[in-house]
Amino acid sequence: MIDHLVTMKISHWDGVIRELAARALHNLAQQAPEFSATQVFPRLLSMTLSPDLHMRHGSILACAEVAYALYKLAAQENRPVTDHLDEQAVQGLKQIHQQLYDRQLYRGLGGQLMRQAVCVLIEKLSLSKMPFRG
Fold first, then answer.
1. How many separate helices (H) and strands (E) can be counted in the chain?
2. What phi and psi, each to the nearest 5 degrees, are found at residue 33?
3. pTM, to two decimals
4. Structural domain boundaries of the chain?
């Protein structure tokens, strides 16, 4: 189910489907945290700079939702989110905005979708109390 969401629904042409797929990954990440953190999350991070607008949008939303799900799971056990996400994943999340900005992906036809997705990402990372400094 998780693989199908990542490969087929995250890049769906309909934005509502992409949003629902991201929320479904949030729910499934709590059921399979190890798989989500080690297998799914790196794939999602690599798709955030895809030339395909829909894939970029869906993967950023999914990164936000999966990170928040892993945070909620860690918080239940009084542990930091970094127990589930390694340093490379945390740095990847931190760099999404700057990479989009550097490639001027906030402009043009897809700019509105990118701005909306990054706002969701910022919200979820803030709720997740990510260890961003500086």
1. 7, 0
2. -65, -40
3. 0.94
4. 1-128
